[in-house]
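In keeping with the milestone schedule agreed at the kick-off meeting, the structural modelling team has produced records for the first pair of proteins. Each record is given below as a sequence line and a structure-token line. The laboratory manager (R.T.) confirmed that both were archived under the project's standard naming scheme.
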Amino acid sequence: MKLQLAARARTARATGFAVPVRSSMRTQSTMWMLACLICPCAASAQSTGDGVPETVLQETVVSDQREIGSVIDPVRSRTTITSEALERRQPENIFKPVEDIPGVSINGGPRASGMKFNIRGFSDTEDVAVVLDGATKGFEKYRFGGTFLEPELLKTIDVERGPSITSGSGAIGGSVSATTKSAEDLLRPGERIGARIKGGYADNNDEVLGSLMAYGRPTECVDLLASGVRRRSGDITLSNGQPLRDSQADTDSVLAKIGILATDHLGITLSYTGLDDSGRQPYDATGGQPGVFGTVRRTIHDKTWTGALNYQNGSWIDSRMILGYAQTTLHDLIRPEDNTPFANSATGNVVDQSAFDTWTLDYANTSRARFGPIDNELKVGVQSIYSSREISRITQNSTINNALYPGGFNASAPLGDKTSIGVFAQNAFIWKTLSFIPGVRWDRYEVQAQGGTRQILAGFGEPSSVSFMHISPAATLSWQPASGPVRISGTIAKGFRPPLIDEAFTQGAFSRCATFLLHSLAPKSQICGALYQPEQALNRELSISYAGTDPTPLHGTLEMKATVFKMDVTNTLESLSVVSPGVVAQPGREKRRGSEFELGYSRAWLFGSVGYSTVDGTVYDGITLQPIFDVPGDTFTSTLGVRLFSRRLEVSWRYRSVAARRVTVGLLPGNRPIVGTQAGYSLNDFYLTWHATPNATVWFAAENLDNERYFLNDGFGGSIGSEAPGRNLRVTLGYQF
């Protein structure tokens, strides 16, 4: 009996929803009859003397860190943004909430379509893995972002810094993993069904937000949620009061999700997430004003389907398998009157179309056993990702199109497929206060050119595919003195970063293998292909953490962690060049060192957090050695808040200070950077949450309260970054039925 109930509780936790509290007798009887028809797990529930099944409550763990807004992993460099933090800030995009995590910043912007995650200075598509409900996301386009997730639909956001054996291959910067909401996250004790409606307004860009969620638990083993979100806005207003042209938003997002606890041991979750965006935007989505690339009429469709199975049976089998499919399509209408270099009176209108399809299969099992005095936790897994990229450019003038873009082929934006498979094993040996966690990962990558690029390579007798194999070992040693609140950990891990389809198979101005760069050693096709070798990374970290009760008279819950790291990257892709007569190689290297500190505190009426990070080092591009650039500036963040009137009112103040940093402001021939300096800045934000009634809530935010003028990352063409929005006042009203 106890083992059966424990197994059900573990499976429920893995599936993502818990067993609710028993409702009224009549409702419970009705739900029991439905459960017998819908879900076989209900038939195994224990019955009370009156014939009504006894609802089994899962084990509940209460943590004040949920109220702080983040959860700090004591061993790994991993931080979780909780649903409470997302509710408090009511962010307009997924990028804003993660900026308080040490070592994390945002490249591009201020438009969400132009933003990328930057972790310890890494921001390329292959450097940082983005995952939604277990499905890998990814989109490659010049001067574009590619992550489209509506924060209103998200429950948590996990950010891991540095390479990891278990989170995925190739991402030496780290990973961002988002999880969507379930009915469990919204239902209150005793409820079986509910709905929430929200509306909001932001004065900076006249944004209007509307969202509706309907959710329920018709039986103890079925979790249902459906949601729709709409955002409409005008142009962003800069701190000087001027509009940022073509920065309006027009997005619609949906989420449909079902969780089924099929048996005491098996849980199934199915989800669909979609986002549509359209409007007039700069071709250079990462920049500020349209600039030299002009504007386009842009339409974006982003869809993600996932299916997850969780099976737990005893200590040897605790498995999770995810099958995911993500599709992102982009349609750009480029007109001659929009001042772009791509369309003129001779070409007429130009249409760029891009489509990315990504399949993910991820399986892992954890086995737990004790041999003598040693506890063991063995985790093994297989991860496979297939991604295809289709791009075309069609001009209105068919004659010019056949000459410049035959069949829609644009040599600077190659078509291709990428396939990867990874196998890993990691075992935790735990003896008293010591933990030793060695692991190893084996990966194979293949990048295959398609379409016109493949025809060009075939014409020159050059291979159309490039493959790599890589072994990535890692080890962590952790000590928890006297099993107390302090933990000291050290980690060493290797990783790698393969070239993107763009990098491997681009021909033309963006290729690093043109004749004027490699001279006689350039491939006849002037496509790099197999000349590229993966970047190699070696990461070392040392941390000390504390998790327990604050020893001061305040006696609140306290979590804090300090980390120092060093990462060496060799074979940098940007350094591909002739290194000696007859030899082409990648002599470039980067040395990064940094520190990160994070703290979270909470008690009944007071909460707060502090974060600090710094990254510096050197970069050698094969010609010169100089201080590293395009890494986040030294950053300090703090949040201080109070809860009043029996927690009906919550008020908090957020301060963020970013120091000056070295950034790329342009490119020399061969795509070598021109480095400049971006000024630092400081921001003050204010947040208020008022639970006016048990069902009605008001959120208010004042961001960039001082209306400070500052610049975001990703400058280009002599600029020092994109100018950021000015002051923004937002109010949101929510009602839960």
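The second protein of the pair:
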Amino acid sequence: MKSIITVLTFLFLTQIGFSTTEDFAKLDNFFKILEENDRFLGSVAVARNGKIIYSKAIGYADIATKQANTKDTKFRIGSITKTFTATLVMKAVEMNKISLEETIDTYFPRIENAEKITVRHLLNHRSGIKTFTDRDYFSWHTQAILASDLLDKIISKGIEFEPNAKFSYSNSNYVLLTFLLEAIFEQSYPELLHQYITEPLNLTNTHYGKKIDPSQNEARSYRMKTDWTLQKEDDMSIPLGAGGIVSTPSDLCRFATALFGGQLITANSLKQMKPLDEATYGFALEDQKMGEHEGLGHGGDIDAFTATFAYFEDSNLSFALTCNGANYGKYNIANAVLNEVLGKPYELPNFDVVELDSTELDQYLGVYTSDQLPIDLTISKEGDQLFGQGEGQPNFKLAAKGDYVFTNDEIGLTITFMPEEGKMTFEQGGAQFEMTKKVEEASNENLDQYLGVYTSDELPIDLTISKEGDQLIGQGEGQPNFKLTAKGDHVFTNDEIGLTITFMPEEGKMSFEQGGASFEMKIKEQ
């Protein structure tokens, strides 16, 4: 999603981390390398027995004014908010204001299956209610919305399955929990957050977010394109208890220590929040495996912010990371910090790359599949740059490291190709899979489902998809036509012009991706 090789001409200012009696020189060097290569804007903290033993902030909170991130800079934390919300729900249960088995029809009678959906189902994402943060969301996410209209949007999405039939992550669940909490307490969500969590724990840098204000030591968020590019803000009338809190790593560490230490809710309530049996997700607490380290916590993404926190009960360690610009994987950072604190080895970042020409990349191109993964991975190229792309996901750059090895440090991914065998190994987040290149032929008959004229308000011209025999052809108005090569599962590419088209024939749509831009196009009615 972001450039891997580009290095900006300026260096980020660093706020020096602090420690107690421990020497974190190697970890300081780790962050220095990230800083010098413009890989990370953000902050981290780690606490042992509730005491912060290391923190570090690098980069800018506001690039335009050169305002540096500090350990007290506040970041939007996205879905980590859900853990705060779940804690408030368990507090309400302890106060006998609500039961986990209570159905939600009293509060939301217009929601389909409301008489069968329980508070528990909302908490563990087993309600069947579809998320409102779908493709349409990005057409209105920067606009203020009334609570009643937000509820209408959730209701309009309908249901995906019967309650408790399966797990499906949905932001709708935690917005509904926000409305429920406000109804039973007769207080606003920010007031509840302050009264029951931030004030008792003295979390002075944690509150419900508003429009970002750097003068209040709040960070803006950026994506790396050819430069750090400022991103639009979600309006804070939308995410509520699903993603609206701002905080710092130090405050998140204190929150984690308090939650797992019995300062906020009882041990029995905490036990119910944890994943049960073979599940990996409980009540906004999910398994956090970082290398050899296994804990519980949650991640979050909003705008271009990304965040994560985890608590490791066996060592009484809490870790948190907040980021307002990433060109390096947060998993890699978390792993380095935890290994440092626990005295285990880890490697310093290495951003050296091997230059390959376009023809050398051809041996890697294709669609790779594995029975162990739910989606296929397409490997394509644009000029001398190799790209990877999972089905329905943005593409990402792959940097050559030599000996058939490619990486994307931002998402912590390493791919090792075996071109003679038509295979690759895919390593990410401590997991490793072998994938095999698919061999597919597009038939004349199945090409018919893609044919037509596609249009988009974001593009000045329409795109006609036609065929010649078994060959799919694309052509913009007044432009030469070009061939499209099938890569599998409705995905077609033209590597010469760096184009990827993913068709959605049942919806009469396609996604059109070229040069880092992505557009959705709809087929025109004839």
